[in-house]
Design brief:
Distance between the termini: 19 Å
Order of helices and strands: HHHHHHHHHH
Strand content: under 5%
Number of helices: 10
């Protein structure tokens, strides 16, 4: 990885960690398109590994607000969806995977903007888990469906519950990818280089997460993700 590419990826990692630490979503939406443009070979393994410490700390920080019922049903669907994501990785070549990243990012943004308020039940949680399992295992992006299902709940519940769902799902995805021979050492080395940037973003989010205007920042994430999705398709 060249110094210029490293600098841009590190900046995206810090920004993504800050946004997710503050609002409960956004890390993969910020980082995955940047990796898709500059270092596509790192997707999805390096992105999934980077999200492990990030989501573990976010879930622990607001563990009192976790929705355990929803997390249980989402995780069940997540396990089922993981194998669909693995199938996508087997079928699609790297350049078509970038197209999937761009399209899935843009579609998720539009759905998040347009969906009406609703109270999620068991079916909504399970279906959300299945969709997340497919998209996150294949591309590293799984936040939009989770943010959608929790978007009308208290901010602390969204942040902590989404983080715990991410953490469980990422472990499942990495296990399945490892069993398929895709968890290679050269994909893990860049993760170590990015940990200081991840820590910096998370520390900044810790300073503002209780007072930040989450609604405004959520709109910022969606706009950024939409633009990023367009850029990935354009390359």
């Amino acid at each position: 990885m060249s110094p210029d590419v490293f600098a841009w990826v590190a900046l995206a990692v810090a920004a993504g960690a800050f946004v997710q630490g503050a609002t409960g979503m956004g890390f993969a939406l910020v980082v995955a398109p940047v990796l898709g443009l500059l270092a596509p070979a790192l997707l999805p393994i390096s992105l999934l590994v980077l999200m492990l410490p990030l989501n573990a700390l976010i879930a622990w920080r607001e563990r009192h607000a976790i929705d355990l019922r929803g997390t249980k049903w989402i995780s069940l669907g997540r396990v089922l969806g993981t194998f669909g994501g693995l199938w996508v990785l087997v079928v699609l070549p790297l350049n078509q995977l970038n197209i999937l990243i761009g399209v899935s990012t843009m579609a998720a943004v539009l759905v998040s903007w347009l969906a009406p308020a609703f109270a999620p039940g068991r079916k909504a949680f399970v279906s959300t888990g299945v969709i997340t399992g497919i998209t996150e295992t294949a591309t590293g992006i799984g936040g939009p469906p989770l943010a959608l299902v929790y978007q009308h709940m208290p901010v602390a519940t969204l942040r902590a519950s989404v983080a715990l769902c991410f953490l469980i799902g990422e472990l499942v995805s990495l296990l399945v990818l490892a069993l398929d021979g895709r968890l290679q050492a050269e994909l893990l080395l860049p993760v170590g280089w990015m940990l200081p940037a991840l820590a910096a973003g998370l520390i900044l989010s810790q300073l503002v997460h209780r007072t930040i205007n989450a609604r405004f920042l959520r709109q910022f994430v969606l706009v950024f993700a939409l633009v990023s999705g367009v850029l990935v398709l354009w390359q």
